[in-house]
Write a structure and sequence with these properties.
The chain is mainly α. It contains twelve helices and no strands.
């Protein structure tokens, strides 16, 4: 056997013996390269990456605005008042907490498509159309947690407020203020559900580049295409968004307790 063949054979033998180590090194190189390229895309101002971030912020902002406007007053009513069918309604709200996103996307798609009752508004493959689906996902979270916050409030609070003459909006705002930390937690939880969502955004938005492509749908698409670095960049930005949001909540809690 020639010297070159012996060297090749010995190299193959070493690779076979250290196969796991070789695979580990390849994986680490692949991962580190993906992170380096991902950070490069972020700091170079890559248009595709930041376009997905902008769409995500617009969509989540619209969804949360509608969710909080309807969810907090409705959650207060659900937790504060006693009425026939309350237990059944509460059970329905709690059940909707775990509703699959694709089921929501399917029904909303049927309503806003051209053949649906809302087809005339041309909401399909638009940010408002996507916001409808995400609001349906986030609303039960705000409803259930706000109702729990109101129910867990000090039993003497209601009597004290009524004694002081609180009625209507004053009663609403005073009760909600006492449970503000739990309601803030409800809003953060709902926002996390909205930003991490893929099924509704994909079905109702169509993942259209520059228009309805969000961070999560872009990660799914780019990873499927083998563009790991772009997926890393988007994932890092999504984590940063979550970190900033949770830091803001912690800051507000500390400030309120001071």
């Amino acid at each position: 056997m020639e010297r070159g063949d012996k060297a090749a054979a010995s190299t193959c033998l070493l690779r076979a013996r250290g196969g796991d180590a070789t695979k580990g090194c390849i994986f680490l190189d692949y991962l580190s390269e993906g992170f380096l390229q991902g950070f490069s895309l972020i700091f170079s101002g890559n248009e595709e990456v930041w376009s997905a971030v902008a769409v995500t912020l617009k969509l989540s902002g619209l969804s949360m605005l509608v969710t909080l406007l309807f969810g907090i007053p409705a959650g207060f009513a659900l937790g504060y008042f006693t009425f026939p069918g309350k237990s059944l309604l509460r059970l329905l709200v709690d059940t909707l907490l775990s509703i699959p996103t694709v089921v929501v996307g399917l029904f909303v798609y049927a309503f806003i498509s051209n053949r649906g009752p809302l087809g005339q508004f041309e909401l399909l493959f638009t940010i408002p159309g996507m916001a409808i689906g995400q609001t349906i996902l986030a609303l039960p979270i705000v409803l259930a947690l706000t109702a729990s916050a109101v129910e867990s409030a000090d039993s003497r609070l209601r009597f004290t407020l009524l004694t002081l003459g609180a009625r209507g909006r004053r009663l609403l705002f005073s009760t909600l203020w006492e449970g503000r930390h739990q309601i803030l937690l409800a809003a953060v939880t709902a926002y996390g559900r909205v930003t991490a969502e893929v099924g509704v955004s994909m079905m109702l938005g169509g993942n259209i580049k520059w228009h309805t492509r969000t961070v999560t749908t872009a990660i799914t698409l780019e990873t499927g295409k083998g563009e790991f670095s772009t997926g890393i960049a988007l994932g890092v930005l999504l984590l940063c968004l979550s970190f900033v949001l949770n830091w803001a909540v912690s800051f507000l809690r500390r400030r309120g307790a001071a």
